[in-house]
Amino acid sequence: MSKIDEVRSAMVKAMKAGDKETKETLSMLLAALKNKAIDKRSDLSEEEETQVIMKEIKQTKETLELTPPERTDIIEECQNRLAVLEQYAPKMMDAGEIRAVIDATLSELGIDAPTPKDKGRIMKVLMPKVKGKADGKLVNEILTSVMQ
Q1: What global pTM score does this model have?
Q2: What three-state secondary structure class fits 148?
Q3: Does residue 134 register a pLDDT over 90?
Q4: pLDDT at 15 over 90
Q5: Which domains does the chain have, with CATH numbers?
Q6: Is there a contact between 56 and 64 (Cβ–Cβ < 8 Å)?
Q7: Residue 122 phi/psi, 5° resolution?
Q8: Which strand (E) or helix (H) includes residue 125?
């Protein structure tokens, strides 16, 4: 079952249950998935579906960060939207798992004490290994902490 079918059936359930916020979020996600499929002119692969979902999550988080604290309505809406979207996202790696991948990459490259000059070379090998499984910002922070 593709994500489009999965999201569509969940949206129908939300409509029947009268859950307006969930329905709106799923409708937005379904539209994003369909638009990507239309742009591609074929069905999406699982990785492409995940990319669309992660993009929606990232945009919602950015909206949440930029929202003034007194706008509790927008903050609440974003938090509800994130809760729904994260049900369809793959499980993300935690800091310990990312650290293990970084250590493996360093040994693979033969780097004992990484310096800031090595960062580009390390990231080039590291990012394809964690793409779609870990937040790039978190990977960068952990790698930076390893270098010091």
Answers
A1: 0.70
A2: coil
A3: no
A4: yes
A5: 3-85 (1.10.1510.10), 95-147 (1.10.10.410)
A6: no
A7: -65, -45
A8: helix 119-130
